[in-house]
Amino acid sequence: MNRSALRGSILTFTGDPFFEDPRDCCTFIEDGLLIMKDGLIESVGPYEERAAEGLDPAYYPQAIICPGFIDGHLHFPQIQMIGAYGEQLIEWLNTYTFVAEQDYADPGHARRAAGVFLAELLRNGTTTAAVYCTVHPQSAEAFFEASSALNTRMIAGKVLMDRNAPEALLDTAESGYEDSRRLLEKWHRHGRQLYAVTPRFAPTSSPEQLRAAARLWREHPGSYLQSHLSENRGELAWVQELFPESRRYLEVYEKFGLLGPRSAYGHCIHLEEEDFADFRQSGAAMVHCPTSNLFLGSGFFKLFEARRQDRPVKVALGTDVGGGTSFSILRTLNEAYKTARMLGARLNAFQGFYLATRGGAEALDLADRIGSLAPGCEADLIVLDLKATPLMEFRLDFAKTLAEKLFVLMTIGDDRAVKATYVAGKKVHSRD
Ligand code: GUN
Ligand code: ZN
């Protein structure tokens, strides 16, 4: 039996602050005790000496213990070209991305990058992510091996791409299906690993490949599907040319059977009401990637349209590294707030932290396991330091309420605020 404990302020959600008063859906324990056993959370409650007896809890004053962050969309091979200058989506893919991704034919390179990538996620407090590998099966092998060794709960998949990319990055409908099936059968539910069938986006897959992807996904209940949707105006026009029978971009994915629970679509910027309604009805999730959308000049995600109370769509946050410019979900929240402001809306701190934790877990159909600090959940959690920088320390002296403190964290916080990261009860990152 492996039991340990943490003491400090504890924050977690029991409901959705987009629709409920934070007082009814957010639990905050000023001086709390969280006990972990065998990788799971055993109990969460106010600190009591008697309950902590014999456990010698790790004590984190001036900090907030919350669930590990969830990143619903990013690309591990793009870690080597994050921050590439000057282009919008299609030129950016051709100029930088498709060049970098060719390096992942080399399993040694893939292993090295996977190690750096996972360490960077944990340093930033992200304990679960939905990850794109490259077209090479060995890139997914390298990623799952590294994640498996860390025991992190990750969703990932080999990218499917059989047209409109350099020859060296193409599979075929047949080989992509077979390679993905082998990977899925090996890695899906292997420990904490989960597989996502990953057609990159409509322009780089033939109709045959999209059909094969849907078949594979259907044949393996519980597996995931991830792709990109409506990110960039040029992309929209291209999809219109390639699939003239579909008026809307989303119809392409719908027609091939690629929409449903456990499917997650990155970006979702240029959408109509019918698209939101289809997401709602199908149970598919949108992933909001604001640092990427600003960096690539793609547009503004309509978060509050997506989360409209009469037909709320599930939404996760994504960094979309390397289109996105940071691994930090705190920095991503900062840009999500600004994006909402540009549309005249306001993302409050409770909504922000919900999206980063429980909301992300709900979008990825994992809310019964991660995203909350509750008995029985997997013990993936982080310690956010309220005195991480001189600016934060000074600024927070003037923040009176929990809402204010959390908002300062999501506005000026970054990887420096992540004092410690725990995965399945084990400390895997310590800042100091
Ligand atoms: N659309 C298709 N591929 C990509 C990618 O790698 N990054 C982003 N941001 N959008 C995409
Ligand atoms: Zn992406």
Strand-helix topology:
Layout lengths: L2 E11 L8 H4 E12 L2 E7 L2 H4 L5 E10 L1 E7 L13 H13 L5 H17 L2 E7 L4 H14 L4 E3 L1 E2 L12 H15 L6 E6 L7 H13 L4 E6 L3 H10 L6 H8 L6 E5 L5 H10 L2 E4 L1 H6 L7 H4 L7 E4 L11 H14 L6 H15 L17 E5 L4 H7 L5 H11 L5 E6 L2 E5 L2
Parallel strand pairs: 1-4, 5-6, 6-7, 7-9, 8-9, 9-10, 10-11, 11-12, 12-13
Antiparallel strand pairs: 1-2, 2-3, 4-14, 14-15, 15-16
Bound molecules: guanine (GUN) and zinc ion.
CATH architecture descriptor text of the largest domain: Alpha-Beta Barrel
Structural class: alpha/beta
CATH topology of the largest domain: TIM Barrel
- Mean pLDDT across the residues is 98
Tell me what you see in this structure.
The protein is built from 16 helices and 16 strands. It has 432 residues and is α/β, with parallel strands linked by helices. It folds into 2 domains: 126 residues, Urease, subunit C, domain 1; 259 residues, Metal-dependent hydrolases (TIM Barrel), CATH 3.20.20.140. The model has no long low-confidence stretch (mean pLDDT 98).
